[in-house]
Amino acid sequence: MSRLFDNFNKYRFLLVELIKKDIKLKYRRSYLGILWTLLEPLLTTAVLTFVFGGLLGKGGRTFPVYILSGRLLYSFFAGSTKAAMKSIRKNSGMIKKVYVPKYIYPFSTILSNYVIFLISLVVLFASLFVFDINVTFHILWALVPLLLLLILGVGIGMILATLAVFFRDLEYLWSVFLMIVMYTSAIFYHVDYSSFGEKVWLFNLNPLYLIIMNFRNAVFGTPIDIKALLLTTIYSFGSLIIGIIFFYKQQDKFIMNI
């Protein structure tokens, strides 16, 4: 573990440069550039609000904020894990030529997505005033699920980056799995006992749902759910520990398989 921190400190400048590079490449051929970070969630929320709020008659005045708060967190998780999964093979040329700690590649990819995600939160917090949602001191608790979201993304990303080196079809399987995650994260519907009955407990198996739930609690000014917080802490740090150990045990085999 001490070697990990020594390497991190030694290559932190490279990490920052890789993050900058990823962000620039993401918007390189776009006319609006990083403005899409703000526009994309707005447009997506507008469509989902129209479908679920307008056509299906669900939600209320603050429903767009409810959707946006879930959509932003899910988009980060999906985008960062998919990018991390491809990071080792994407940088295969560099890995074969120059020694750099291999975890730098998935880690920098996830962090670049996190920076973009944090910028997109401007839209969410602006919407609180647009829809006249009372901001309370509970909003400070939003930092906790946001941190756990990053830790979960890094943990899952490291696992996927390792597996994708040996199993190329994982990219397609993960896309299907992310669809399941999206529909079980309550992005555009509410989870309550009256709707799901005894099956409500199944949502506790989805760490992203629990993170989104507590983030929404903070945004809408209600206390966070302690049980959900404990579960997401276990899920997030558990995936991080497993991801780091798994990555380090397999990284020496990467060169022969990329």
Characterise the protein shown here:
The protein is an all-alpha fold and 258 residues long. It has one domain. The longest helix is centred in the N-terminal third of the chain and has 28 residues.
Strand proportion, as a percent range, falls in: under 5%
Distance linking N and C termini: 26 Å
How much is the radius of gyration in Å? 19 Å
Biggest pleated-sheet summary: none
Number of domains: 1
Q: What structural class do helix, strand and pairing data support?
A: mainly alpha
Total beta strands: 0
**What's the number of helices?**
11
Mean pLDDT: 86
Helix percentage range: over 70%
Helix and strand pattern? HHHHHHHHHHH
Oligomer: single chain
| Shape category | globular
Low-pLDDT residue intervals, each spanning 5 or more residues: none
Quick overview of this protein structure:
By secondary structure, the protein is mainly alpha-helical.
Spell out the key features of this protein.
258 residues; mainly alpha
List the helices and strands and how they pair.
Elements: H1 2-10, H2 12-26, H3 36-55, H4 63-90, H5 92-97, H6 104-130, H7 143-166, H8 170-183, H9 193-196, H10 207-219, H11 226-250
Helix pairs in contact: 2-6, 3-4, 3-6, 4-6, 4-7, 4-8, 4-10, 6-7, 7-10, 7-11, 10-11
